[in-house]
Give the backbone structure.
Amino acid sequence: MSEVPPDARFIEISKRQVDSDLRDTVNIKIRYICGNVVAELNQESNSAVQQKAYKSVKDMVDKYELGKRTSLESSLQH
């Protein structure tokens, strides 16, 4: 039996934990790990889900920013 470097073991344990966390939800679960989106949606590839998650979050931020600007403009007009 070959020795497994401690780092490799840690990575495998972490990967298994992430995999089990992702299976907890039927459709989607998004987690941010070290600033990266880790997600799984049915049979889609991880990169496709990452792109959708990024776009979804970006859309929410854009709507929030637009709402802030709109409320600021309306308060300045009054």
Remarks:
- Residues 46-77 form the longest helix (32 residues).
- The mean pLDDT is 62.
- The chain has one domain: 6-77.
